[in-house]
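Input/output pair, single chain:
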Amino acid sequence: MIWFLQGQSSQRDVIAGAMDVINGRIPVIASHRQHRPEVTAAADIVLREPSDDAERLDWAFDTALANGVKVMLVGQAGHDFEAQRERFAAVGIDLVTGGMSIETFNLVDDKSAFTAAAMRAGLSVIPAITVNNADELVAALASMKNDGPVCVKPARGIYGMGFWRIEAQADPFRCFANAAQHSVNEALFVQAYRASASPEPLLVMPYMPGSECSVDMVVHKGKVIAHCARRKEGALQTFSLTGPAVDLAIQAAEFFRCDGIVNVQTRDDAAGAPHLLEINPRYSGGIGYTRLAGINLPGIFAASRLGLSIPATEWIEGVQIKGITSAVRVDTLS
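Output:
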């Protein structure tokens, strides 16, 4: 039996991809903290996770043991479950958290630690200065801005939240009128950071003007066994299996000892050379898109963990896709 605990918004796509390969041979459990039948209903068994973090760990262990679960893909709570890896391993459960140790999470969740570790390893990564107060921010901006555009982002976080391009001459009101541009006036940003009662650490970095590449991959205990890269080109996304960004992403996932379905993001500089942005030790929101290019990464993950035949990749060259939103009816709890 395989269990998919609450993950990112694409949990539905991961379950669907896995079930296509399992094809009824092994029961599939899906769970979520909320009533989300549109996400979990395709599974053979649907469970509701406790809202309390500590309670969820004990509940997951007891439930897995009672149901004979052999593989658990944790999803969002990788760090919490990783801390109890030995407990699950002792009863024969293959716990898949995104990493192989707490060290993996400590390095990839803290972007300053991630940057330093990647540089030591010789991986091409965007250089960054970590700042903890407004004076340090001013000094870091002064040291970088003469060499080109500068950007900032939180030392911890996902989804690009808190990312801003710093522009000395930007209209001070632009960031309020059009936040989607992620461009902010330098003086205004410094003023706001200085006024914060508890400023969070920031990374100050050169802004890379090239395109971003998101590489979804299946990693089996530190070794990448399947992957697919996506690039956004306006409203569309394109796919590839090779290239410098893919090579860099694979090197990074293996160096940081990832495990499971993970995502590595890179961004190109002005010359088109990729640089590491971050590693997400969890599947991406767009993981399901890759099936349209002929590669079922969730299916490959499930098969590799359950000892089933790995589904063949039927690569379709030149595919372009566009995500759309569709409505589904969600029945209330009885």
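Residues 30 and 41 are 8 Å apart (CA to CA). The chain has three domains: 2-96, 127-206, 210-321.
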